Hints:
Helix content is about 75%, strand content about 0%. The longest helix is centred in the C-terminal third of the chain and has 34 residues, at about 300-335. It is globular, with a radius of gyration of 21 Å. Helix 5 (about 75-80) runs antiparallel to helix 6, helix 8 (about 145-160) packs antiparallel against helix 16 (about 340-360) and helix 15 (about 300-335) packs across helix 16. The chain has a single domain, classed as Hydantoin permease, CATH 1.10.4160. It contains 19 helices and no strands. The protein is mainly α. It has helices at about 1-5, 10-25, 25-40, 40-70, 75-80, 90-120, 130-140, 145-160, 165-190, 195-205, 215-230, 235-240, 250-275, 285-300, 300-335, 340-360, 375-400, 405-410, 425-445. The structure holds tryptophan. Tryptophan binds near residues 28 and 324.
Amino acid sequence: MQTDQxxxxxxxxxxxxxxxxxAIGLGNIWRFPYVLGENGGGIFLLIYLILVAMVGIPVxxxxxxxxxSARRNPYGSFRKLAPGKPWYLVGLVGIAAxxxxxxxxxxxxxxxxxxxxxxIANGFSGKSSTDINQMFDTFRAGTFRPILWFLIFxxxxxxxxxSGIRKGIEKYTKVLMPFLFILILILDIRAITLPGxxxxxxxxxxxDISKISAETILEALGQxxxxxxxxxxxxxxxxSYIGNRERLGNTALNVTLADTLIAILAGVAIFPxxxxxxxPPGEGTGLVFKTLPLIFQEMTGGYVFAILFFxxxxxxxxxxxxxxxxxxxxxxxxxLNISRKAxxxxxxxxxxxxxxxxxGSWGWFSQFHILKQSVFGILDFTTANILLPLGGFFxxxxxxxxxxxxxxxxxxxxxxxxKAGYLPVFVFLVRYVAPxxxxxxxxxxxxxx
Length: 449
Ligand code: TRP
């Protein structure tokens, strides 16, 4: 029924822009630098790259394969491909993860708007490092502003999603992604021409094996899943809108390369500056919000670079929040049989409630803890380090062992019209390498083995 009137991407570039737009986000520019900073620098990057190649690409391609062959939301896709079997649970967990991710992610996206506003209003100028640290802590502990910016960001996200795939998501990401790329290149050039930039580049690119630990590896896996938008059905959903003539293998490879490149470029933009100004790299979630404004106000042209940077962050966040909201909207509209508009409103309202709690994690709701973590902390940790790897595990197992090699082959070769010579490698990866790697890293990281 939905198949005929289902929306779809209109062009090859549109597919890449939308999927790369989903992948490239706060995960690359905010999360990657601070997680890398806390996990010893270069060694983290090295493990990260290995895991992205061995696990990330197979999971991403598996999601595209499931989505395009079923042409449904994640839950509906598993129902369709494995009728009467419990695989739909993987889809349902994915939808739940989408709620959780969107709630805390949009809170951070809201912070980027506050900081964009501050940058424009020249709010960092003349402040000492204590002032700037305090500015972030005070803002985050407030009630009104974090919630207000969160809601504004939620509205922008809904506005795009409500317009659909081709006229909403594709239209915006096609313009925003090239712009984002130019912005980050400008910031990179500024960073590597700072005196003392070499120290930062060394931290980023020179692996120090002594800093390796089980948690570092789990963090790298979690970061990889988070950054590539895999493990919960975002790319099943986007895959369901990809045309039959696109090459899924190429798409997955291009999106992974783009995402990895931007993460590295973000590191190159941030660490030289962090080291040039003698700031400890293990600052945590505040890294870009506390250290960068300080750096901007001390460096030549800082006023403009601060605006460009927070604009970059907001754009990167927006092309990602729309992809997560789309998962829930596709689910609601297809499974409850309601219009896209009604589904978007329903999804945004429910996420909005959870997000208001997450936004209060440092303020009005900071007394509330589960396992010593705030709402925000719980949402971030459980999704990235538990639900996504778990989802990814079942997704590759499904494609490797249950979907049927014939069917996978047909999907990846576009019904036999493409060679897709990588197929045997892909099958080997999804059957053995990826599931094993996820299981080992996961159990090891949680201290089970
Ligand atoms: N990948 C995005 C980022 O790096 C965030 C994101 C979008 C995401 N969709 C996702 C993370 C699905 C996990 C799962 O910022």
